[in-house]
């Protein structure tokens, strides 16, 4: 048996799979986010430990025999978080999360240093880890002076599980300290933020061993024999392992809270000016590119709240038959935008409202706006040297057939819908635990799920969607002047 632990922003999921990768059971424990000030987003790392105890404890209660046979544990987690540890291994302050934007000034300052883009292959975004440490140094100097280790969220969980300070390539690529081509920390970039290599965890590949489970925890959970803890992955790379998106050109679109267009690469292809992330993948010798929009299902959830309807009700109201875009255009920049604009200040808008703009028309506009933002991501990936022939859909928004048709037509790409199953980050983490414990061939393990159905672009609406997309593109510079910059 193999255990995957996925530390998400809103909860921790533990998933148990057998040697044939059949899902045996899973359990969840909720987490909350603290927002003490505007733009802040924090969690107490002690809550991650409590959630892990709850989730694995539930598996121990319900499936003791299966849990006793665990030989490998894989880890996945939300990226970019700054978890600061002192010399005694104690947490110095709450973790500053990926969606915390307080360090936007520090991020811009680091990004002005050409070494960061040259070495990491990425813009220094406000959500990344390095600018958060610069902010801490500036605003909490007593805390900064005590920092012995900087850990990403899942790697703090590893520290609790194993007692070791270890990270891996995919998550570390999102710190703005990794030499992404060389897959190693950059002493030069660390020094630029007044840090040293010894304050970083050691690095392994995601499918390699990254520590061993403490005997006390193994005994508590009824596990017999040694249990290896894999390097693991950042959440999107872990999802890619779960989806089998590991070979060059394989891709998925995630319609979750945020939207992600993820493409696996067999070599390093940076183009930071496109705002495409060029990160290491979780498997040796592989990289990936990723475009990110900050509000996907979050945009529909917001509109649902405004209209006092559920997202499911709104989706049912528009039906399954794709319509050509109307006169209403929606810009989904509710909390700024990452790819391709790298603009934390931009905000969303409805454009083209008229007396006849009913709720259904506005729902379609919200879905189309997200689809067009993903098209922006596709164009950014193309500019960075990646061409896609088809993509697989995951995430809660992919349950809406209308939305998938809109995305397929806006991107002019077929979208595969996987057969029923959970192929997300927890499953990918469990696969990495299997690889670390057995030494199996990653490509033989990280295979894609069967396709239940394919949603093809609707050629009758291709021209209308292209025209609407060009209108969408023209609106960003038009409203940028109104966003207070």
TrEMBL record:
Active site: 235 (proton acceptor)
Presence of keyword Metal-binding: no
Catalytic activity field: D-xylulose + ATP = D-xylulose 5-phosphate + ADP + H(+)
UniProt domain Carbohydrate kinase FGGY C-terminal: residue ranges: 252-437
GO biological process: D-xylose metabolic process; xylulose catabolic process
Keyword ATP-binding in record: yes
EC assignment: 2.7.1.17
SUPFAM superfamilies attached to this UniProt entry: Actin-like ATPase domain
Residues the record lists as binding substrate: 79-80
Pfam families from the UniProt entry: FGGY_C (PF02782), FGGY_N (PF00370)
Protein keywords: ATP-binding, Carbohydrate metabolism, Kinase, Nucleotide-binding, Transferase, Xylose metabolism
InterPro entries in the cross-refs: ATPase_NBD, Carb_kinase_FGGY, Carb_kinase_FGGY_CS, FGGY_C, FGGY_Carb_Kinase, FGGY_N, Xylulokinase
GO MF annotations, alphabetized: ATP binding; D-xylulokinase activity
Annotated site (Important for activity): 6
CDD domains named among the record's database cross-references: ASKHA_NBD_FGGY_EcXK-like (cd07808)
Stretches assigned to the Carbohydrate kinase FGGY N-terminal domain: 1-242
NCBIfam families: XylB (TIGR01312)
Family: Belongs to the FGGY kinase family.
PANTHER family (alphabetical): SUGAR KINASE, XYLULOSE KINASE
Task of the protein: Catalyzes the phosphorylation of D-xylulose to D-xylulose 5-phosphate.
Protein name listed in UniProt: Xylulose kinase
Gene: xylB
